[in-house]
Fold these 2 entries.
Entry 1:
Amino acid sequence: MTLSDLLDARVIDGHGSTLGDVCDVRLVQDGPVLAGVTAALRVDALLVGGSKLAARLGYIHREVTAPALLSALVRHLGGPMLLVEWDDVAEWDHETHTVRLAPHARPHRFVASP
Amino acid sequence: MIAGDGAGRRVWADLELLDRQLRDRAGTLCGKVDDVELACDEHGRMYASAILTGPGRLLERLGRRRLGGWLVRFMSENAPDGRDASRVPFEYVHSIGAVIDLSLDADEVGTSRTERWTRDHVIAHIVGNRHDPE
């Protein structure tokens, strides 16, 4: 399994509706301890929907905010982005490149901290 | 050891890991992050277990899985130690920033193995290979 298998995978909610494609993956350094010295980066959440290009340029994560007009435009054109906790993922099918969420999953709108 | 903000640090994989420059412990640039290997621990938690680097891994990421897989196997089988140097376990990642610092030497990373193999097995057999073009 690789990160590229997960990126761009189609995300389907517990009722069969398509939410969008995986745009980015959030990792948190609280995974299993590696070689007895450091915690691994655990897969914590998926960023779903929006513009992949805008995300790659840093506009979605608010790492880049200038020029303000371009920043507002690319975020608006990309549409809303959802944050899906990895615990809400019921199934990840590598063959069909699909991530299915559990029925109880409650994706919420992603708002990056400025 | 991953230095930085410590336990609980958050990293956006596509934005902050993929395609970042790798640098060895001597400061030599030694390739890019072409992909990241994921694994599951005993509790079913998924985590990033290794950085994947080198032309074979990049081909796999770009959808050329058979060719990329063959290249990775070929380079591993022809390596002196038989090790897959295109896989850098995360315990060798020292810090993640604009550049990803490794606690390895550049020779231990697989990025330039194709280049070195071509130099030793192809270029070295060409007449006149030992001097610069005039």
Note: The two ends of chain A are 32 Å apart (CA to CA).
Entry 2:
Amino acid sequence: MNTTPPDPTPADDADARAARLAHVLGGVLRAGVAASILVMLLGLTVSLLRHPDYLWDPEAVKRLMQPGAAFPQTPAETWRELLAGRGRAWMTVGVLLLILTPVTRVAAAVVAFLVTRDWAYTAISLLVLGVLLLSFALGKSG
Amino acid sequence: MPPTRRPRIALAAAAPWRYAPAMTPVEVMAVSFLLALAAGAFGALLGLGGGLIVVPALTLLLHIDIRYAIGASIVSVIATSSGAGAAYVKEGLANIRVGLFLEMATTLGALAGAFAAGLVSARVLMFVFALMLIATALAMGRTRDAGPAPTVRAGRLAERLRLSGSYWDPAEQRDVRYVVHRSGLGFAISLGAGLLSGLLGVGGGVIKVPTMNLAMRMPLKAAAATSNFMIGVTAAASAGVYFARGDIDPFIAVPTALGVVSGARVGARLLARVHSRWLRLAFTIVLLLVALEMIRKGIVA
């Protein structure tokens, strides 16, 4: 394996590392999307089983889909509703999983660059990760 | 209790210009799914994300609040980008270094854009979205490949960050190596692309691909793949803000995301069989009509 720093063919070494990194990042992305789709479908099913009136009651649209609609809006609320077995909380978890997929991808990149001692890109990916985490923290005040 | 009979109304899609009341939640979800399916398929065929189509479809045809429509769109944008991004990354087409470098700019821009979206009225959002559609329609007419860079030396910043890359081109049976130029300019434009993505809930590939191709001189294939790879991270930055603000309604976002993801798969399969030139022309006209309708609605509403 190419672990010695002074490599006579730096391009090949970089290619090999890039290929490994790509493999890891691609896996993170696929797994995240698949998991979130499953949880979304589960939530939708639970929600429709618990509220069959969604099939025939036009009034429910106001409660579910118009401004001021009730659905969990913080992780804490989502967790509480999840324990209560509400479908909409599972749907929200699916959405959150999807949002977290690219975040995980960046976190995986941080680790991968750390391992290969690529400090510049460790810093760059950490910065991106920082902005992403900031968005969740700041979102509440927005 | 027996369901009360209500007069069957045609789906809103049949009479989009009038207010169509009285759909049930399941009907709204089914129609959102189908609209998103079409959006995802067209998006994949034309190399656009679904966001440009999803937002107008939800607001104009289903009368969903534009904030919820943008919230749903941003979620589906993440889904398609991650799905397509995984494939591109695996094929080695996406340039991960360029992606991360520009993501510093797009995420910051997206964060600002998502905040800005909370400050302006729905009417302003409609107008800005319409302008974005018109700009896209005009840009679609003349997508061209910049061709190889004029010099073989990369820009100074690009050299320091080792942005230049290569990918295996199966059609040409060779490794395509390329050098990256003007990364500073690319970074600056990416700030704007991120801002627009955060404000309107679109992927912003329309800006990112030409930036990487024309300004940074990356081959079109690598630019498109890298753009796709970046879009998910960019959208995640604004999705955090949208979620915390309560703009991501699961009953709208879930069917939309499921639809766009399935549609993107269908579109990718159709890709080889469709004449993209006529499709592009038809789509340009549709975008312009949709833009006009959004402007009209922005004035009337």
Note: Residues 1-9 of chain A have pLDDT under 50 and may be disordered.
